Amino acid sequence: AVEVVRWFNNHGSALDLLNQEQRFTYKRVLSLIHPALTQWTTNFQSASRLLVLRRALEACVFRNRETLVEIGAKSQTRHAKESAQRVIASIEDKVFWNRLDRYAAMLASFLTVVTRMF
Length: 118
What we know:
Elements: H1 2-10, H2 12-26, H3 40-52, H4 54-73, H5 80-92, H6 94-117
Helix pairs in contact: 2-4, 3-6, 4-5
């Protein structure tokens, strides 16, 4: 999930395509949230936001697959095209979304318990 967030946030043209899809799908644009390694709340917010944006992400990939791969291929990093293809594969993978949903539910339970402790 972090790779999806990082990839879109690091590729302005891809993020523009996602934002267009959000405007069409939700009539507003929500930011992707990059989780902080040690902050459980941001991990929950990041996972939850990805789940909220699932339809827009899937539609963006469906409508713009080749463009997204081209955007990734233009990056100056090694394996940039492969990274774009991994992100696309994750977005299309039902198992990815099921695991993310379970992860978000687990974090919600964890945060509820921790909050009650203090």
